[in-house]
TrEMBL record:
Presence of the UniProt keyword Ion transport in the record: no
Protein's recorded name: Glucokinase
Family assignment from sequence similarity: Belongs to the ROK (NagC/XylR) family.
Native species: Acetoanaerobium pronyense
Single GO molecular function: glucokinase activity
Length: 314
């Protein structure tokens, strides 16, 4: 049996055909013409699916399912409530794809959840039944896998790990709340905090590394300064670790997964903070004598989207 996995992003659509082990047999991509509306995107995606199946020399009858990862939130029937980068609200994606491929199972999930499934099948969480992926990038995304199945709640809107409220912060989250994990543990969060400290007059080599332009500070410049024992960078990274530790401890206390995987841009600095992060998590877990799931860096790159989406069909 074969599986189709689709990764719809704001700039491109990737389609892959996999076997039941998640091995990619054939793949292809095309641009996402956001301005032309969802009908065009779904039409381009469907053409690409047929092309990818034909290129593999297999019959579409042998494809069991079509799984799709979207940068947004969908309900259990595949209606996309919203996908900001695609400018979609209430798009009946599942229904429209089922019309084009009537005999296929069609499943639609948030792209971070899909990436978590890929990590579980062929990446950093391989061999585990229950695991949680946190992606620390522009925002904080996440995916929860329980007994090898994605968990997104009864209405498809759960597993918003980045919007767990873990403290009070000096700026509000895009979602309207204050204190979301995303505002402490994303690349955006640490950049904003660095900009705040430096604009308050703290001296730091972070500014030199950013060509003395506060708007050019990146997560990379902060971690480089941290490596060179810059005092402000130490404060920033300690705060990041503190709140990320609280977030992960909350997940331990609620889900007790076998493993945590950290992905996204900020995971490149994993070695700098992992030891302190484990200590911070251990301070906030309730059952201190019981070990908690290991925290590892994510291993999958670009193909995580299509492999994870394909594995939705298992
Ligand atoms: Zn939020």
């Amino acid at each position: 049996m074969y599986f189709i996995g689709v990764d719809i992003g704001g700039t491109g659509i990737k389609v892959g055909l996999t076997d039941e082990m998640g091995n990619i047999i054939s793949s292809g991509d095309c641009p996402t013409y956001v301005e032309l509306g969802y009908e065009r995107i779904i039409s381009d995606m469907s053409d690409k699916i047929i092309e990818v199946v034909n290129n593999a020399g297999i019959d579409i009858k042998d494809v069991k399912s079509i799984g799709i990862g979207i940068p947004g939130v969908a309900d259990v029937n595949g209606k996309v409530y919203y996908a900001t980068n695609l400018k979609w609200t209430n798009v009946p994606l599942g229904e429209l794809v089922r019309k084009k491929f009537p005999d296929k199972k069609v499943k639609i999930e948030n792209d971070a959840t899909v990436a978590a499934l890929a990590e579980l099948h062929i990446g950093s969480m391989k061999g585990k039944g229950t695991g949680i992926l946190l992606t620390l990038g522009t925002g904080v995304g996440g995916g929860i896998i329980i007994n090898e199945r994605v968990f997104s709640g009864a209405h498809g809107i759960g597993s918003e790990i980045g919007h767990m409220i873990v403290g009070e912060n000096f700026y509000d989250c895009n979602c309207g709340n204050n204190g979301c994990l995303e505002t402490f543990a994303s690349a955006t969060a640490i950049i904003k905090y660095a900009q705040k400290l430096i604009s308050e007059g703290r001296e730091s080599i972070i500014l030199e590394k950013a060509e003395n332009d506060i708007s050019k500070i990146t997560a990379r410049t902060i971690f480089e300064a941290y490596k060179e024992k810059d005092e402000v960078a130490q404060i920033i990274v300690e705060r990041f670790v503190h709140y990320l530790g609280i977030g992960i401890a909350n997940l331990v206390n609620v889900f007790d997964p076998e493993i945590f995987s950290i992905g996204g841009g900020v995971s490149r600095a994993f070695d700098f903070y992992i030891d302190d992060l484990r200590i911070e998590v251990s301070k906030h877990v309730i059952f201190k004598d019981v070990p908690f799931g290991n925290i590892v860096p994510a291993t999958l790159g670009n193909d995580a989207g299509i492999v994870g989406a394909a594995m939705l069909g298992l």
